[in-house]
Amino acid sequence: MPHSAMTYPALAARLLARPPSCGPARLVAVDGPSGAGKSTFAGHLAEALVGAPIVRSDDFRVPWDADPLTWWEPLSAAVLDPLRAGRPARLRRYDWHDDRYGPEEEIAPPPVLIVEGVGSAWAGSPAAHRIWIDAPYGVRQARALARDGLEYADAWERWAARETEFFAKDGTEARCDLHIDGTTFTPHRFSPR
Fold it and tell me: The domain spanning residue 71 has which CATH number?
């Protein structure tokens, strides 16, 4: 049975009450399969946290045929390790359309850092709070192909199979603190399931 609707500011208050998990930051992992709604949800949550930085798996070059955690080591080196030491992170975000990295940006140690992407809540994540977002396969596929293009249909299906295998092996969904249906949340509220 679904729980009552929750607002992003209410979730933000809960997150800020958690102890830091990565240096001074509370790392919030927004995980789930491709096309589930992770990026959109993370954006709504960042607004409620008044501009909390978001680092996405898409900020790193992860080929379609790669292991879903290919981005974790570069994330650790550029962002998590410096934050653990209380230093600013330095990140050059990958531009998928231009196939190149953008200019370096600095991320000062924030109260909350949102890390969004497949594998963000894996067993090795220093997350203070793990959020799982999912949606039916057909919905996710339609969203992904609208985002990436029909020419990636076969690659997306292979990726979807790889991430499903990864999640099962890691036990990611069971580890998450909050589960959300990626077809029901709005810019103002969501219903945990």
Answer: 3.40.50.300
